[in-house]
Amino acid sequence: MTEHHSHTDRPGPHARAASVSAPDTAADTGQVSESGRVPGSVEEWENRYSGAEAVWSGRPNVALVDVVTDLDLTPGRSLDVGSGEGADVIWLAGGGWQAAGIALSPTAIARSRAAAESAGADADFAAADLVDWATADDHRGAYDLVTGCFLHTRLPDTRADLMRHLGELVSPGGTLILISHATVPPWAGGEASEHEGAGHEHHGLDGDFGTPEEDFALLTDSGGGPWELVLAETRNRPVTGPDGTESELEDGILVARKV
Questions:
Q1: Per-residue pLDDT for 205 more than 50?
Q2: Is the dihedral of CA 149, 28, 90, 164 positive or negative?
Q3: What is the CA radius of gyration of the chain?
Q4: Helix (H) or strand (E) holding 219
Q5: Are 220 and 232 in contact (CB under 8 A)?
Q6: Of 164, 159, 221, 177, which is closest to residue 69 (Cα–Cα)?
Q7: Tens-place pLDDT, residues 131-172
Q8: Nearest 5 degrees, angle CA 114-CA 255-CA 205?
Q9: What is the spatial distance between Cα 57 and Cα 183, in angstroms, rounded to a whole number?
Q10: SS3 readout for 148-183
Q11: Which of 50, 74, 109, 258 is exposed most, by the fewest CB atoms within 10 A?
């Protein structure tokens, strides 16, 4: 799901690790569970959320807030893919967007709806898979803004599928914003060998994350464009790990406009 980082990047009280890698093209970013496994099915994502009182801080992702604010976009229809507990969607709704979010876990969606009601935000949420959502006629090309935070795929060749499906959702003249890990969180450094030992190559767990420029190349090759590159860069942000240790992470920022 989407981790909605605060300026300190502190997870909710029951989170044990930051997002690292996600199911192949599922509409959730990768939250590593207490066992060290990355959820890879609807059931596993539901277990991840239902097994914790709260996973994330409830504050919007600071990188997303900064990028949207700097772009000064005219609010329209927005979709957050892998919306988690809804903080980014609620923030966008507060800025005048007709904001919606999708995630795999019904528990995450229920929490998102409750948070939106508590905040007085007019936001919609649905438990849905990205592939199904993107291929539906009433969603294809329907959004002025599509956002995704830490949507890391398990295998390199599925990254192209992810970018294609995200691009399909964006309307002509609309914007895609993708926030990705550029480095592995230090507290997740030991996870790679555990996954490799299970016989899987999990893209990104060894720190070999794709760059924003590489994601843009996949987007332009997807056939859903043309696309204009607005921003591709890496930014540092302070974080607080699950054990309270202060650190710094690098985020890859991609902003592309469909022309």
A1: no
A2: positive
A3: 16
A4: helix 212-221
A5: no
A6: 177
A7: 999 999 999 999 999 999 998 876 656 899 999 999 999 999
A8: 75
A9: 21
A10: EECCCCCCHHHHHHHHHHHHHHEEEEEEEEEEEECC
A11: 74
- Across residues 28-41, what is the average pLDDT? 45
Beta-carbon count within 10 A of 76 CB:
15
Q: Is the dihedral of CA 169, 173, 160, 33 positive or negative?
A: negative
Q: Which of 130, 151, 155 is nearest to 140 (CA)?
A: 130
Range among 179-183, 192-196, 228-232 with highest mean pLDDT value: 228-232
How far apart are alpha carbons 170 and 174 in whole angstroms? 6
pLDDT of residue 24: 31
Task: Name 256's bridge partners.
Answer: 176, 229
149: which residues sit within 8 A by CB, 6+ positions away? 2, 3, 4, 29, 61, 63, 64, 80, 82, 88, 178, 179
Place of tokens 């016989």: 199
Are the C-beta atoms of 252 and 62 separated by less than 8 Å? no
Neighbours of 102 (CB within 10 A): 26
Q: Which of 47-51, 79-83, 192-196 has the lowest mean pLDDT?
A: 192-196
Per-residue pLDDT tens for 42-70?
888 888 888 878 887 889 999 999 999 99
Long-range Cβ contacts of 118-122 (<8 Å, 24+ apart): 119/90, 119/94, 121/89, 121/90, 121/93, 121/94, 122/93, 122/98
Q: Which two tokens mark 94? A: 């507060």
